[in-house]
Write a structure and sequence with these properties.
Radius of gyration of chain A: 19 Å
Number of strands of chain B: 2
Largest sheet of chain B: 2 strands, antiparallel
Largest interface: A-B, 38 and 31 residues
Low-confidence stretches of chain A: none
Number of strands of chain A: 10
Structural class of chain A: alpha/beta
Order of helices and strands of chain A: EEEHEEEHHHHEHEHEEHHH
Helix content of chain B: over 70%
Low-confidence stretches of chain B: none
Largest sheet of chain A: 6 strands, mixed
CATH architecture of one domain in chain B: Orthogonal Bundle
CATH superfamily of one domain in chain B: ABC transporter involved in vitamin B12 uptake, BtuC
Number of helices of chain A: 10
Number of domains of chain A: 1
CATH class of one domain in chain B: Mainly Alpha
Oligomer: heterodimer
Chain lengths: ~260, ~300
């Protein structure tokens, strides 16, 4: 047990390095994500944001370092943590209904070999109601819009009922109504004391949505309460010379009056 | 056409064979790795040859073990080449299966030349000859009920595949649709992947005798592709895959006995005609199915009170 990573921390990352084909994507990360916060992870393309989430879930091999979920390695804490992948990571032409996909979130409770029962289907239906698309439960997933597909993924995460939610760009290419509905649910989870971590692209909404912010570009540039971290100086360090992006940043900062 | 008990035997073998292939084929299609069926059906050849050389027998059990081992190795080699060679998956498959197939042919030519393990037979099968080897099912005072040995082999394979799919239905579905979720839920999608590879490899071997290693690809992929055009759920998708498989086999044999005669030519290969029929069924559904090309798509959309989702 390391003193700098106490077990009450939901996600403690120590000395994490991840490389693809010998090219480092994450370099020597040292990070504690606080409990019960809405946490945003921002950074330029290729900064390793998705990789960070996947490394926390043992979906990709770590070159070095470790990730502790409430003080223990991930494989002992599977039930505490839920992953919502990017929407494009699955094949939406698959012949299953929205309800089928949400039910998949209950497979771990059901266990190997056993069939899903009425109880799981009711749980799944409730979750679809909660994200506002209960009426689309029996529709094939290819007939859903992008926003509706993202809601299906959120509903699937809800039925898994965990303490930590890791979401990879949940707001990418969704309509405004979906974005609004989803952030409301995330805030609800937050008030229940759950920890929600989102990879986020849109700097204009960062300070409105998240109370804790991690700025990432291969290393952790800054991490802390959004109010302290979301500054011109830090953003410049994170996004570097990407000028057009910096213009967006300037715009976002101006809206904040800073 | 001259209809006799042999036609019945051929159809039984063909139907069971096509249905046995359709089940693992359906999941290959869902995983977008249909070419893996092609690869495996070729790559099992060295497995068969080595199994034969070691055991000295052509018994089905040793052949199945050889095929299963070769299937796992094919999947492993493909994985390694993708990881270390930095090439895309289909290219890696192409490298692995052509190499293994060539090695298999060499072993057969050099090592097993004097025996009845004929490359031609492996490639094209011998559906017409399956009635020559019969086994007795049961005997009553009046009848002696026999079926071809090949029907027992492919029938058992079909049952086994059906059992595995039923048992692992949830796991197959999850790891095909979203391997990441399967992984985070602790379902080991890799295990399911190799299980499917072994299923495909052993099924192709069971089908060798009947339809040969080339036409088995049509049995694996074409009926599920046809079903995919029609079904919106997994259950109906699997059911339709089996249905189209059986239909292709029945129509195929009937056509092989009648169509060419119609043109004044001798009867043609049943297995070849079965694959052709599978293709024609696909073409028919593609053109005239509910969302087929021949339908007026725009009119259908306008009529529909449930327009496709926007955005």
């Amino acid at each position: 047990m390391r003193p700098e990573h106490p077990p009450e921390i939901p996600i403690a990352i120590h000395d994490l390095t991840v490389a693809y084909h010998r090219k480092p994507v994450l370099w020597d990360l040292e990070l504690n994500l606080p409990e019960g916060k809405l946490i945003g992870i921002a950074g330029p393309n290729g900064a390793g944001k998705s990789t960070l989430l996947k490394a926390c879930l043992d979906l990709i091999p770590k070159t070095s370092g470790e990730v502790l979920i409430y003080g223990k390695p991930y494989h002992k804490q599977r039930d505490l943590i839920v992953y919502v992948p990017q929407r494009e990571s699955v094949d939406w032409d698959f012949p299953v209904s929205a309800l089928d996909v949400v039910t998949m979130g209950t497979y771990r409770q059901v266990g190997w070999f056993k069939r899903i029962g009425k109880r799981q289907r009711i749980t799944a239906r409730d979750a679809l109601e909660r994200v506002g698309i209960g009426h689309l439960a029996d529709r094939q997933i290819s007939q859903l819009s992008g926003g509706q597909q993202q809601r299906v993924f959120l509903a699937r995460a809800l039925v898994q009922d965990a303490l930590i939610y890791l979401m990879d760009e949940p707001f990418a290419a969704v309509d405004a109504a979906t974005e609004h509905a989803m952030i409301e649910i995330l805030q609800e989870l937050n008030t229940q004391g759950k920890t929600v971590v989102c990879v986020h692209h849109d700097l204009a909404t960062v300070s409105r949505y998240f109370d804790h912010l991690v700025l990432l570009n291969m290393r952790v540039v800054a991490s802390g309460p959004t109010k302290e971290i979301f500054t011109r100086d830090h953003l410049q360090k994170t996004y570097g010379g990407k000028l057009n992006l910096l213009d967006d940043v300037a715009e976002a900062l101006k809206n904040l009056g800073r | 056409m001259n209809w006799n008990i042999n036609d019945f035997y051929i159809i039984i073998v063909g139907v069971l064979c096509a249905m046995a292939c359709a089940l693992p084929g359906a999941f290959l299609l869902l995983r977008r790795m249909s070419m893996m069926g092609d690869a495996l059906s070729h790559a099992v050849l060295p497995g068969l040859a080595v199994a034969f050389l070691i055991s000295g027998s052509r018994a089905s059990s040793t052949m199945f073990i050889g095929a299963a081992v070769a299937g796992v190795f094919t999947a492993l080699f493909t994985q390694w080449i993708v990881r270390f060679g930095k090439v895309e998956r289909s290219a890696a498959m192409g490298v692995v299966f052509t190499t293994l197939f060539a090695i298999g042919l060499l072993i057969i030519e050099k090592g097993a030349n004097q025996v009845d393990l004929d490359a031609r037979c492996v490639l094209y099968g011998a559906l017409e000859y399956t009635p020559l080897e019969l086994v007795q099912l049961f005997e009553t005072s009046d009848y002696l009920v026999q079926i071809p040995k090949a029907a027992v082999v492919v029938g058992a394979t079909f049952l086994l595949n059906g059992l595995l799919v039923a048992l692992f239905f949830k796991e197959f579905t999850l790891s095909s649709f979203d391997p990441n979720l399967a992984q985070t839920q602790g379902f080991h999608p890799q295990v399911i992947h190799y299980l499917l590879m072994v299923m495909v490899a052993t099924t192709t071997v069971a089908a060798f005798e009947a339809v040969g290693s080339i036409i088995v690809i049509a049995m694996l992929i074409v009926p599920p592709s046809t079903a995919f055009l029609l079904a919106h759920r997994l259950g109906p998708f699997l059911f339709l895959s089996l249905l189209f498989a059986a239909l292709a086999a029945i129509l195929g044999h009937l056509a092989s006995q009648s169509i060419t005669l119609f043109f004044g030519l001798p009867e043609t290969s049943s297995s070849g005609m079965m694959a052709t029929m599978a293709g024609l069924l696909f073409l028919f559904v593609w053109l005239f199915g509910p969302s087929g090309l021949a339908r007026d798509q725009k009119a259908k959309l306008l009529r529909s009170d449930d327009p496709p989702a926007l955005l």
